[in-house]
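Researcher: Structure prediction, please.
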Amino acid sequence: MEMSIVNMENSENSENETNEDVEEFDIDIEEFDRDLPAAHSYLPGGLTCIRGRSILEAGWEGKVPCWCHHSIVFPGESVPMHCPDLAHYRLGIQFIQSGRLFGLIFPEGELFMSDYGVLCEVTEATEPFEDENEPRRQISFKAQARQRFRLINTKSWRPLLQRNMFISSCDIKILPDVVINEPLQDYRIFSASRQNCNYGLSQKLRKADALVTQWPQFVYDIFNVDRIVNCIKTYFKELSIENLPEDLLALSFWVASNLTISMEERLKLFIVDNASLRLYWELKYLYKVILCCSQCSSNICKMEEIFAMSNEGIHTNYCNVGGYVHNIVTVKSTMNIDLQGRPSLEFTWFPGYYWTIAVCSRCFSHIGWKFTAEKKSLRPQSFWGLTRNAVTPKNLT
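Model: Predicted structure follows.
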């Protein structure tokens, strides 16, 4: 999606917007297929699956090509990439030919890059092709974030890094990820542990277990993983998302990638090497009230308006025609937003929906896009995609 300069067209606040009246008895209602966005069918060339997978052991050290990314990507996320010019084309070819592994290095503040990143593996790619309108070599591919890593030997050059800069070779070290068992589990006899399916009996057993330790029960309850997971599942169930990962490590990464929090908070979650501790911190971030503009703090959207337009979650990575990767959160309605330009179907991330550039009505910074259904029968008729770095959560005071 091109951020071209166009005339400003004011739109009414979406709180006051209503969909066009549709006589449902005359139209066959069609629900949007939420599997479509994950396919990234908007990428030109047609993606082909690449077989095989590389898994590096924790502590592995070596060199990989790296890209200075503008956001935080957690293991398990999909990263679509489009290489529209010669420089990016050569970059994509190198990623695919160098074992299909490359790293994304994350920012730390406004001036520097951090020492942390995620190792990605190319899973689908197109054959190199030429643009029909403007002949030039291009390639598109999709990668999967696999493992966390930390840069080594960076003291002399890290401050010089800039976002969206490619580094042909970086020394990295794969970081470990651990899952610590329930602390009281080591104090419980095997026959009693089988009774945990009964919540009331389970609480009595936990109380008895805590009596033989040096800490009272409430200390262990603070980090009770079962309680934390139940709270997280309840929260996302309210957003109509129920198929969460069962594995604690995968769940901690999935929740982190689906939280609308600041860049600094995301980096803190990324650095944590304990899945249980990461889930505990994530629980504190769940119940914010409103999203506001990151530049001027204008209210943009109530958190209750967030919903999933993709089966990957409420936050998903998408790539525009210029090769820039956006991470967006989808919401039902917004406030204090103006629209720029006319609706377009070109390079749309959601098949069947026009997109229109959306900016903050106060500071005019780019907030995201409004998506409007091409057919009156498609549901939802409209929604908004907000760029993750453009909005930040806060509590009303």
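Model: Residues 1-25 have pLDDT under 50 and may be disordered.
Researcher: Thanks, that helps.
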